[in-house]
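Open question from group meeting: does this chain pack into something compact, or does most of it stay loose? Before anyone orders reagents, we agreed to write out a predicted structure and look at it together. Recording both the input and the output here so the notebook holds the full record.
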Amino acid sequence: MLPRTLPAHPSLADAVLLGHTERGREWPLLVWAPGPGVRMVSSAVLGGGIGEREWVVNAQVPPGYDRLDPVAHLRALASDAGLSGPGVGLMTAASVADRRHAVDGGAHAVVTAGIGVRGWAAAPGAGGVAVPHPGTINIIVSLPVPLTDAALVNAVATATEAKTQALVELGADASGTPTDAVCVAVPVSTGSSSGPSAEPFAGPRSLWGARLARAVHRATREACAGQLAAERTGPAA
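Structure tokens returned:
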């Protein structure tokens, strides 16, 4: 494990790159620990759903990762990083060190992307029971305002639309990869007259949904553009 230097109450822009060992090799581990008072919605295997969470880890693992205990593995990685309490754990075989960060009007997005295996969501004949594999495009978003449960779900849809828009604009001919994951973090609403009330909307034409969409779109484009360009030019002669 690399030395831990986790700042107190960091913004998503201050996420720290640590490390972990798997198959005898050091791999990057992205850690964001905003602490208590944060609600998150996520599709992650660890800490998925909606609830109060105190941290997010995005662990890069070897290609062909085949462990059958990803939840226990992520919990162990979080513990080794000095994290406790409830959190969200993401995995990817893409480069975590090569993450991309974008901000728009207070909405932050961090994207890690590997798009070697991609396609359209409504693929004929696709589906079936399978062991979950590490997500390939992982999106982490933070907003400075509380959202209702419905708006949190809407924020996930908006982030996914923005990701797909970026891929289509880049000519990827895909809506994503089969194992993408999303996490959106917002402050807990105090529910008092003196505190901020929860925003009811996060669609792409709402104030915060539009900002979220632009941040995710830009971070996804930056994360994927180089990979697609390399595919088209092929290996250097």
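Observations to bring back to the group:
Residues 12-124+133-233 form a domain with the L-amino peptidase D-ALA esterase/amidase fold (CATH 3.60.70).
The two ends are 38 Å apart (CA to CA).
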